[in-house]
Here is the input.
Amino acid sequence: SPVRRLIEAGLNPRHVVQIGIADYSNSPEYALRAMEMGITVITRGELARRSLQDVMAQAHDVAGAGGGNIHVDIDVDVCDRSVVPACPAAAPGGLSAHELRQLAYLAAANPRVVSMDITEIDASIDAPDGRTVRLAALLVLESLAARF
Here is the structure.
C-alpha cells in the first residue's frame, strides 16, 4: 500500500491517521499491522458517534505532532458506493458526499496543512452525470474555501 511504502521510506507511522476505513475491506492482518505500527485509525463507527470537527482536531494533533507540516490524502472511495461510482473500491455504508466535503474543509483549515491530494477515482467509469468527478472538484473548492 502507499502508506506502507511511505513508512518504509521514513514516515513516522505514529503521525499517520486513517479516517473512515471501511469495515471488512481490509484483512485482519492489515489492521493488526497498523495497530502495531501506531497508526491511528478512526473507523466509520467512530465517525457516527463523534463530530467531524472532533475527529479532524484529533487527526491534526496526531499528524502534526512534533511540529511538522501535514499532508492530507483524500481517498474518495471512503464514500458510499452509490455516491462515487467511479471508485471501484467503494463499499456500501461509506461516507456521504456532504461528510467528505466537510472533512476536506476541516482538514484544509489547519494552517499546518501544506498539501492535499484526491485519489482513488477512475473517471472513465463515472456515472453519466459525472457525480464522482464533480465531488472531487467540490473537494478542491472546499479545501480552497477553508483557506480564505
Observations:
- The two ends are 34 Å apart (CA to CA).
- The first strand starts at residue 17 and ends at 21.
- The chain has a mean pLDDT of 93.
